[in-house]
C-alpha cells in the first residue's frame, strides 16, 4: 500500500480494488451533493462501476501516467484527489479532486492539494500544474486561489453537466511560482 501522511488526522492512499465498497458508499452518500459539479456521478450506479474506475486508475498508475488517491480522514475515506494524466514531454499535469459532503470545511482538500503539488514538483520534477474548475463552483475555486495558482483564462461551454454546458476557469502553477511561494514561507 502506498500512502503519504499529511498530518496526524489525514493521509493520502493510492486507491486499490479493496477500496471499491468504501468509495462507492462515499459516492452514494454524497450523490446529490456531488452531482451539482461532477458529470460522472449519474454513471456511477453500482459497485461494479466503482470497481471498473479503480481498475482503470490502477492501470494509469502502472503506466506512469499519474495516480488517484483516496483522502483518508480519521481513518475514513473522505474523498479523492489525483492527476488527470501526465504530459511527460512538457512536464505538465492537471489535478482533479472531490470530497464527500460531510467532510467539507476541514481544510482536507487544501492540504491534500498542497501535498500533491509538492510531490509533482519535487518528486516528479514537473514544470506546470493546472486545475480547471466550473466558474460557479465557489468551494473548488477557493483551492487553487489559496495555493498560489494564477487564473489564466476562461473556457466557455467546456463541460456538459447533465442539462447544460458550464464554463471553467483554468488555473496554472509553474515550478518557478511554486519555488517563489515556498521561498517566502521559509
Overall geometry comes to globular
Q: Going across the biggest sheet, name each strand in turn.
A: 1-2-3-4-5-6-8-7
Subunit arrangement of the protein: single chain
Mean pLDDT across the residues is 96
Through-space gap between termini: 32 Å
Element order: H for helix, E for strand = EEHHHEEEHEHEEH
Q: Compute the number of helices.
A: 6
List low-confidence stretches.
Answer: none
Cα gyration radius (Å) = 16 Å
What proportion strand?
Answer: 25-35%
Residues in helices, as a percent range: 25-40%
Helix-strand category? alpha+beta
Largest sheet: 8 strands, mixed
Number of strands: 8
Question: Can you tell me about this structure?
Answer:
By secondary structure, this protein is an alpha+beta fold. The protein is 36% helix and 33% strand. It is built from six helices and eight strands; from the N terminus they run E-E-H-H-H-E-E-E-H-E-H-E-E-H. Strands 1-2-3-4-5-6-8-7 form an eight-stranded mixed sheet, sandwiched between helices. Strand 1 and strand 2 form a beta hairpin. The longest helix is centred in the N-terminal third of the chain and has 16 residues, at 47-62. The N and C termini lie far apart (32 Å). The model has no long low-confidence stretch (mean pLDDT 96).
Task: Record keyword descriptors for this entry.
186 residues; alpha+beta; eight-stranded mixed beta sheet; 33% strand; globular
Q: What's the helix and strand layout?
A:
Elements: E1 3-5, E2 10-14, H1 20-29, H2 31-35, H3 47-62, E3 68-73, E4 76-87, E5 92-99, H4 108-123, E6 128-134, H5 138-146, E7 150-160, E8 165-174, H6 175-185
Parallel strand pairs: 5-6
Antiparallel strand pairs: 1-2, 2-3, 3-4, 4-5, 6-8, 7-8
Helix pairs in contact: 1-3
Amino acid at each position: 500500500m502506498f500512502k503519504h501522511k499529511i498530518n496526524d488526522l489525514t493521509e493520502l492512499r493510492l486507491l486499490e480494488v479493496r477500496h471499491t465498497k468504501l468509495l462507492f458508499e462515499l459516492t452514494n452518500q454524497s450523490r446529490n451533493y456531488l452531482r451539482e459539479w461532477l458529470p460522472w456521478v449519474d454513471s456511477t450506479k453500482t459497485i461494479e462501476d466503482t470497481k471498473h474506475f479503480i481498475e482503470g486508475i490502477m492501470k494509469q498508475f502502472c503506466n506512469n501516467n499519474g495516480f488517484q488517491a483516496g483522502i483518508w480522514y480519521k481513518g475514513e475515506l473522505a474523498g479523492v484527489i489525483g492527476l488527470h494524466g501526465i504530459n511527460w514531454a512538457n512536464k505538465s499535469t492537471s489535478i482533479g479532486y472531490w470530497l464527500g459532503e460531510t467532510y467539507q470545511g476541514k481544510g482536507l482538500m487544501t492540504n491534500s492539494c498542497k501535498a500533491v503539488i509538492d510531490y509533482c514538483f519535487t518528486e516528479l520534477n514537473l514544470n506546470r500544474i493546472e486545475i480547471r474548475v466550473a466558474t460557479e463552483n465557489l468551494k473548488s475555486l477557493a483551492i487553487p486561489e489559496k495555493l498560489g495558482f494564477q487564473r489564466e483564462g476562461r473556457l466557455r461551454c467546456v463541460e456538459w453537466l447533465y442539462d447544460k454546458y458550464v464554463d471553467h476557469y483554468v488555473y496554472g502553477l509553474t515550478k518557478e511560482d511554486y519555488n517563489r511561494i515556498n521561498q517566502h514561507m521559509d
